[in-house]
Amino acid sequence: MNPKKSWSWLADLFKGNPRPRLEHGFWEESRKGEDHHLIRTDCLRVPGDPSSAFSVFAIFDGHNGSGAAIFTKERLLDHVLDSIPPGLRREQWLVALRQALSDGFVKTDKEFQRRGARSGTTVTFVVVDGWTATVASVGDSRCILEAHDGTVSVLTVDDRLEENSEERDRVAARVAVRGGRVGRFCGCGVERGPLRCWPGGLCISRSIGDTDVGDFIVPDPHVKQVKLSNNGGRLIIASDGVWDALASEMAAKCCQGLPAPEAAKEVVKQAVEVKGLRDDTTCIVVDIIPPDHSTLFPSVPKKKNVLKSLISWKMWRKSPNKLEKKLSSLSTVEVTI
């Protein structure tokens, strides 16, 4: 055994807070080939020190081509890590990470914009270091956390103009000054589809890329950092192909009791059964497991009735009181720029 790793484990045990074990799974069903993902479980805060390991899980949902999604997958992590000063202790590093994520998103966007390409991408980017998860996002992909007691919390912000009144007002104010508009597509005198920002016709307010939309759309991410209890939890990270079909609680419930690889596959399967494969549908499941547990959720779920899922989903979409984002049992820090 590596002596550094052994010493780190003993030190954590002495503190009464040994590091958790991570298990992850991935599954996708592709329609357009514009979804891309990143899974890195070998990152180190301190080069050569295994006790400083952390993991990165991300989904990039491209539109108008996959160029921005591929570019962001290749460059974003490096830009984030380059923005963190060297020599920081772990707690200092976690604090610096929040601003580094914002800086990394903006730098990646500027670098891609110089290429003059017109594609864009949403990003949901998750860093897991011990019991702490830091989530940065732009667009309408989503990351949820299911705590050990079954409580489901949404760790991202939906940037769709149709759903987010604050973002809609922000974009509308900037568009009005510059001669654009926020509205639905109009064909033959009939408005249809979701609210979009014109020029460009983008239906989300934040993304990386999208040079044809201009500065109405910004790359600055919403950043949330949560510290889990020692009971652990499950992260479900997915593109909108999942969330357009399943509410957050439904996605968590349909895969309870399954190990992470099977859980990711089940979430995608349920989403496709509910709405069909209309879009790229991608899911990453990450289990943060206490070191003295063999699994996170020992019970096996009952088979989900797809018809009931569809009815529940429609009722949830129409309800004025959608899922409350309950984070009361977690230690959280939220940064929105």
Strand content: 25-35%
Topology as H/E string? HEEEHHEEEEHEEEEEHHHEHE
Can you summarize the main beta sheet? 7 strands, antiparallel
Number of helices: 8
Helix percentage range = 25-40%
Shape: globular
Mean pLDDT: 86
Describe what you observe in this structure:
InterPro entries: PP2C, PPM-type-like_dom_sf, PPM-type_phosphatase-like_dom. This is protein-serine/threonine phosphatase. Pfam families: PP2C. It catalyses: O-phospho-L-threonyl-[protein] + H2O = L-threonyl-[protein] + phosphate; O-phospho-L-seryl-[protein] + H2O = L-seryl-[protein] + phosphate. Keywords: Hydrolase, Protein phosphatase. It is a single chain. With about 325 residues, the chain is α+β, with helices and mostly antiparallel strands. About 30% of the residues lie in helices and about 30% in strands. It contains 8 helices and 14 strands. It has helices at about 5-15, 65-80, 90-115, 165-180, 240-245, 250-255, 260-275, 305-320, and strands at about 20-30, 35-45, 55-65, 120-130, 130-140, 140-145, 150-155, 180-185, 190-200, 210, 220-225, 235-240, 280-290, 330-335. Strands 2, 3, 4, 5, 10, 11 and 14 form a 7-stranded antiparallel beta sheet that branches. Strands 1-13-12-6-7 form a 5-stranded antiparallel beta sheet. A hairpin with an 8-residue loop joins strand 2 (about 35-45) and strand 3. Helix 2 (about 65-80) packs antiparallel against helix 3 and helix 7 (about 260-275) crosses helix 8 (about 305-320). The protein is globular and about 65 Å long. Mean pLDDT is about 85; it is low at about 1-15 and about 315-325.
